Amino acid sequence: MSQEKNPRALKDNEAKAVCRMIRVSPQKLNLLAQLIRGKKVDRALADLTFSHKRIALDVKKTLESAIANAENNHDLDVDDLVVAEAYVGKALVMKRFHARARGRAGRVEKPFANLTIVVREVEASAQA
């Protein structure tokens, strides 16, 4: 008497990982998403490992999670995976204030972002 299972949103050769509430602005996070978009996962992991950006570690963990989801949940071959999509969304923005001269206040905004990474298994011949 249970409900019918929801259809899978992704194709059979895809897996996804989402990291929510990352403490960085979406604009800065999108720079790293652009860096790995369309690359093979081993190359993308190497780029993130040697990136000097603070948030690269969180992006790398999300990519590793997507790879693990592909391998364990969907039985995909890790060597044939490509970062199909990597996109960034806005999350909340904490508003704070900073005391300024003459009794005034300066507004300080602390943005958060969401990151979604989709990996796709591509045939070995198509990667050339």
Description of the structure:
The protein has 128 residues and is α+β, with helices and mostly antiparallel strands. It has one domain (14-122): Ribosomal Protein L22, Chain A. Helices cover 29% and strands 35% of the residues. It is built from three helices and three strands; from the N terminus they run βαααββ. It has helices spanning 26-36, 41-49, 56-72; strands spanning 14-22, 81-99, 105-121. A three-stranded antiparallel β-sheet has the order 1-3-2, covered by helices on one side. Helix 2 (41-49) runs antiparallel to helix 3 (56-72). 21% of the residues are buried. The model has no long low-confidence stretch (mean pLDDT 94).
The averaged pLDDT comes out at 94
Strand content: 35-45%
The biggest sheet, with number of strands, parallel, antiparallel or mixed sense and barrel status, is: 3 strands, antiparallel
Shape type: flat
* CATH class membership: Alpha Beta
Structural class: alpha+beta
Q: Quickly count the domains.
A: 1
Considering DSSP H and I runs of 4 or more, what fraction of the residues is helical?
Answer: 25-40%
Strand/helix succession: EHHHEE
Comma- or semicolon-separated keywords:
about 130 residues; alpha+beta; Ribosomal Protein L22, Chain A; ribosomal protein
List the helices and strands and how they pair.
Elements: E1 14-22, H1 26-36, H2 41-49, H3 56-72, E2 81-99, E3 105-121
